[in-house]
Each structure stands twice: as C-alpha cells, then as structure tokens.
Amino acid sequence: MKKVLITGTAGFIGSHLAAKLLSDGYEVVGLDMVNDYYDVNLKYARLERAGIAKESVSYGSMVQSSASPAYRFIQLKLEDKEQVMNLFEAEQFKVVINLAAQAGVRYSLTNPEAYIDSNITGFLNILEACRHHPVENLIYASSSSVYGLNANMPFSVRSNVDHPVSLYAASKKSNELMAHTYSHLFGIPTIGLRFFTVYGPWGRPDMALFLFTDAILRDRPIEVFNHGKMERDFTYIDDIVNGMAKMVDRPPRGDSNWDPVHPDPSKSTAPYRLYNIGNNSPVRLMDFIEAIEQALGKEAIKEMKPIQPGDVVKTWADVDALAEDYDYRPGTSIRFGVNNFIAWFREYYGI
To answer: Distance between CA 127 and CA 178 in Å, rounded?
Structure first.
C-alpha cells in the first residue's frame, strides 16, 4: 500500500479525504494540531469516527486507529520543524496532502500571526521535508480567496491574483509561490487546489451553512451580509474528495511548451500545477438560505447587513483544466447537499 500523509485530518476536508483514501486501499498517516479555532469536540468526534480515541491523543505520539489497520494519527504542529522532519524521516511518505492551515477570512483580521505561523512557516516546513525526504507528489490546499478583487467570472487559474483582500488569502497565494519555487529548484511535483466554499456533513461551525442551520433551529436571527446580494460556488464534500483521490497517483509534469514570454500562471516548465476545485455553478445567497429553510421546514429570521471586510461578492470556479486533466465532474445539487448536512446536524446535535 502506498503511504500517504494527510495533514489536517481532524478538520472537515481532511477527515473525509482520509476515509476516502483508506477505502481506496492506501495507508494513511493523519496529522493535526487540533487547535481551538473552533469547537475541539467536533474535531475529536471526527477523529473518533476514524478510530482515534480522544484519550489516546498525545502531542508527538503516533496513535493506531482501532477502526483501520492502515490508519495512524499524530498530533503535531507544522511549525514544529524538528518533529516534522523526524516524522518524514521515519515514515518515508510517497505522497503528501497538506490541508492543515489556519482557516477563516474574518479571523485573520484580528489574529494575523496565526496565519504566518501555520500557513507560511508550517508550509515551508512541509516543503523542506519533501525536499530532504523526496515524495512522488505534494498536493496542498490553496483557496478561492486568492482571487480577491478580481471580478473576471468565472475565476480562471490563468487570471491575475495579485490583489488579495485578507491575510488568509495572501497566505494562500504565498503558498502557491513557495510551491513553484520548490518545484523549480528541487523538482518536487506540486498541485495547488483552490477550494470553493466546501460544505457537507461534519462541516465547519464557522461556515454559513452551519451558522444558519444552528440559528434557525434555535429561533435566532441569521446575519445576511451585503443584504443578500452575494453568490458562492458551493461545492459538496464528496465531489471534492472524489476529485482529489484521482490526483494522488498522478503527479504533474513540467510543460515543455510553457511560454515565458506569455506565462500561464497555472503551470510551468517545473512539475507544478494550480487548479480550481469547485462546483462551476454559483448559487445566490438568498437561494441558499431558502434551500436551508425548506430542508428545516422553518423560515429564517434575517438581519440584513453590509458586506464584511475581507469578503468578496461572488465566487465562480472555472474547472475546465481539472476536468481535462483528471476527469473532475462535480454533480451534487445544492438541495441534496444541504439536506445531507442538515440530517447530519440534527443527528449529531440531537436537535
């Protein structure tokens, strides 16, 4: 079995991806700091699903899953360079998927240091570890936030992304630049994925679907920013992990036809690629809220508010490159996805 390191496996996408790759026959080592950016009980519950008991987790110690002989977990900070290097030396990973990061746009307005520590220093340590303990493929999380002030729709990986509107977005753009440097200098194959508003069961409590569902069920008002005049390319979690699974054994190659006079920022002569991974079908915020209301059988109390600093009005992913290279075909409707999330939410919280 090919051994894969997935960082961020106590997180939303990471926990689903670990389950998918285990079912596909890979050996998986999960890594997460389990920080308190949001409810750690939800993070530990995700780990419990994978057979990692909360009481067995101890910083720097590898834990064997009780649910799968092919899954182990270690609590670790990416900023802890010595421990990261020791892990790579001991395990000799074939593939690394870096999903661990300090998430959230609004949180970056008040806690900027967390983004430099985790998203910049932590990612540098991953790159250095891949350099000194060579891997076949490094896949890492970028974000649709990198498009910032760019208003060209749909967002294309060939477009300019030089105007981020949050430090979170700037840190993700930095990751892309750092990855290209290491691909160019050291031949590390890297794939950067710009995620577009991922949602589904076990989702994050700071995301709109979670916040809206919780508020509506508890008869609290929901905050509707930009007076509802927003659109998001909501992407269901199964479409995301099914797409990512296709990339694990297919690292990028350098493009010998890449033109340095008219450079395409999504590729290079180095083994480096950038892709949007989204639904390619933006949904109006008010339609999204209506889907939640219908699934709950209950109308939301809406507080209309101006747009928040760091937010963008619309996201829309051009996924043609990912469809061409990896046959990526997202197909989950917003109503199906919302219904699945709410079924999980009611069961998990007993509401």
So the answer is: 8
Mapping DSSP onto H, E and C, the string for 58-119 reads CECCEEECCCCCCEEEEECCCCCHHHHHHHHHHHCCCEEEECCCCCCCHHHHCCHHHHHHHH
pLDDT in tens, 71-124: 999 999 999 999 999 999 999 999 999 999 998 877 888 899 999 999 999 999
Closest CA to 213 of 344, 42, 37: 344
Per-residue DSSP letter, 7: E
Rounded Cα distance, 250 and 229, in Å: 40
> Does the model's pTM come out above 0.90?
yes
Quick check: 262 and 255 in contact, CB under 8 A? no
Query: Which value, in Å, is the radius of gyration of the alpha carbons in the chain?
Result: 20
Active-site residue, 272 included? no
Residues 6+ apart with CB under 8 A from 85: 125, 128, 129, 132, 133
Rounded distance, CA 259 to CA 198, Å? 33
DSSP state of 155: B
C-alpha closest to that of 174 among 101, 240, 234: 101
pLDDT at 251: 98
Per annotation, catalytic residue among 71, 168, 182, 236 = 168
Contact 330, 235 (CB under 8 A): yes
